[in-house]
Amino acid sequence: VIRVTPTSIVADNINSSILYSILRLPISKNNTILLDLSPNNLASLQLKLYYLFYLIIDEKSMIGLKIIYYLD
Q: What is the superkingdom listed in this entry's lineage (predicted)?
């Protein structure tokens, strides 16, 4: 189980991580494409998510549709 939030303030309050940093998603509103991860970052992310059964997103209403699309 990994708990994530869209902002660091909420993450600090519930002892979780920031969604964008865990999944290495673009933060800027100008980013219209999701860039490929480097081989090292991809391997690290795959290892982190290999045994993941649940990704709990707190404050989901603060996340735009594009980010939800990236999660797929």
A: Eukaryota
| Global pTM exceeds 0.70 | no
Contacts of residue 64, Cβ cutoff 8 Å, sequence gap at least 6: none
Structure letter (DSSP) for residue 63: S
Tokens 């991860």: give the residue: 37
Integer Rg of the chain from CA: 12
CB neighbourhood size of 62 (10 A): 13
Which residue did the predictor score with more confidence, 47 or 54? 47
pLDDT in tens, 1-39: 666 666 665 555 555 566 667 776 655 566 666 677 788
